[in-house]
Amino acid sequence: MSLRKNSSVTYVIGACVITGALLIGYQFGKSSTSALTTSSLETKNTTYNSDKKVVSTQQKHSNIQKSSQNSTLEVSHPKEGGSSLELSIKTAPLNSELTHLQDLIQTTPYDFKAVGKSKKALLTLAKTNANALEELLTSYNDNFDNKKIEQHLFQVLAQVRSPKVEALATELAQSSNRIKSIAGFDLLAELNMPSQKNLNISTSSLREHSSDKELTLAALHALPKIPLSSQENKNIIELLAELSTNDNEAIRSESLLSIGNWAKTEEELDSVVKALSSTTTDDRISAAMALEQSSVVGDNLKTTLLQTLSQENELWEVKSMSANALGRFNLNESEFQALQNFRKVQMGGVKH
Asked: What percent of the chain has pLDDT over 90?
C-alpha cells in the first residue's frame, strides 16, 4: 500500500515537472519568435532617403517620378551590383534636389531665384560627389526629351569640366539622332575641352551634314582650336572655305569667323577677303569681324583694309572693324594718316 502511494506521488510530481517545462518552452519560443519578427521588420525598414526618414526597401529601387501637366522628371537609381544601399545614400541628396527642381519649374509664377539656387546646389553636388555626377548624367539622358528639365540639367553639366561629362557630350555628338547630336556639340562648345578626338568629330559632321543648318552651326561652334601641322591646318581652312559659300547665311557667317580664327597666312584668309566685297551685307560684316579678330598681317591684307576705309558707301560697322584690324600692322606715314582721318570722323569730326 505504501509502495503504491509513493509511486502515485512520484507519477504526479513527474507529470507536473514535464508540463511546467513544456509551458516554459512554449513561452520562451513565443517570445523568441516575437523578437525575431520585430527584428526582421526593423531590418526591412532601414533604408534612408535624403531627408533621413525611414522608407521601405520595396521603394528603394523604384523610380521616383513627379507628375505634372506636361513633364515628368525621371530620377534613376544605382545599378545592381556592389553596395546599392551605400550608393543610394550617396546619391539621395542629388535625387532630392532634382525632384525639388522639378517642383520649382512647374511653379507659377516662375521663381528664377529659387530655380537658380537649386541648380547651384546640383552643380556643387556634381563637382564634389562622383556618384552624384554619375546620377546627374543618367538623369540628363533619361529626361532628354523633356525640354523643360533638359535645358536646366544641360546648364549645370556645362559647368562641370569633367572627362565623364565630355564623354557624354562626344557620345551625343556622334548620335544618329540629330537632336541629341546638336545637344552633344552644344555641350562640347560650352565645356571648351579641346582635343584631337573632338576636332575629328566636329569636322566629320561638317563634311557629312552641311545641308543641316542647326547641326552644322552646332558643329562649327564646337570646333576646337588645337595645334596642328601646316597641312592639317590647311585642310581645316579648306573645309571652312567651302562652308563660307553655303546657301545659308548663318553658316556662311560662322564659317568666315572660324577662318579668321584658324588662318595663319594671307593665303588662308582669301575666302574672307573675298567676302569683304560681297553684295550681301551680313557677309561683309562677318568678313570684317573675322579680319579684326585675326592675327595675320601682310601687305596685301593691309591694302585691302585701307581701301575699305576709303569707300564712301561702305557700312560704318565694316569700316570701324577694318580700322581696328589695321592696328596690328606696321603703317607708313600716309597709311597712318588715312587711319587717323577715319578716327577723327569716328570721334565725331568732319568726314573727309
From this structure: 67
Over range 302-330, report the average pLDDT.
96
**Cα(118)–Cα(97) distance, integer angstroms:** 7
Catalogue the E-assigned strands of the chain.
47-48, 54-55, 64-66, 73-75
- Label residue 230 exposed, middle or buried (CB < 10 Å: 0-12, 13-18, 19+): exposed
Residue 336 vs residues 263, 302, 311: alpha-carbon distances, Å: 25, 11, 17
d(CA 260, CA 16): 107
Counting Cβ atoms within 10 Å, is residue 229 exposed (0-12), middle (13-18) or buried (19+)? exposed
Residue 285 and residue 145: Cα distance in Å, rounded?
Answer: 37
Give the mean pLDDT of 260-276: 97
Is the bond into 93 cis (omega within 30 degrees of 0)?
Answer: no
DSSP for 144-164, written as a single string: TT-HHHHHHHHHHHTT---HH
Which amino acid does the sequence have at 278?
Answer: S
Output DSSP code: residue 277: T
- Average pLDDT of the residues of the chain: 81
> Rounded to whole angstroms, what are the CA distances from 231 to 5, 114, 227, 242, 267?
122, 51, 12, 17, 13
Q: Which three cell numbers stand for residue 250?
A: 548663318
CA dihedral 197, 125, 128, 183 (to 10 degrees): 10
Contact criterion met (CB below 8 Å) for 60 and 87: no
User: How buried is 53 (Cβ within 10 angstroms: 0-12 exposed, 13-18 middle, 19+ buried)?
Assistant: exposed
Q: Is the dihedral of CA 314, 317, 318, 323 positive or negative?
A: positive
Residue range 3-44, pLDDT digits in tens: 333 444 343 334 433 344 433 444 434 444 444 333 443 433
Closest CA to 169 of 192, 152, 151, 146: 192
d(CA 57, CA 48): 9
Contact 267, 300 (CB under 8 A): no
92-143 confidence digits (pLDDT tens): 889 999 999 999 998 889 999 999 999 999 999 999 999 999 999 999 999 8
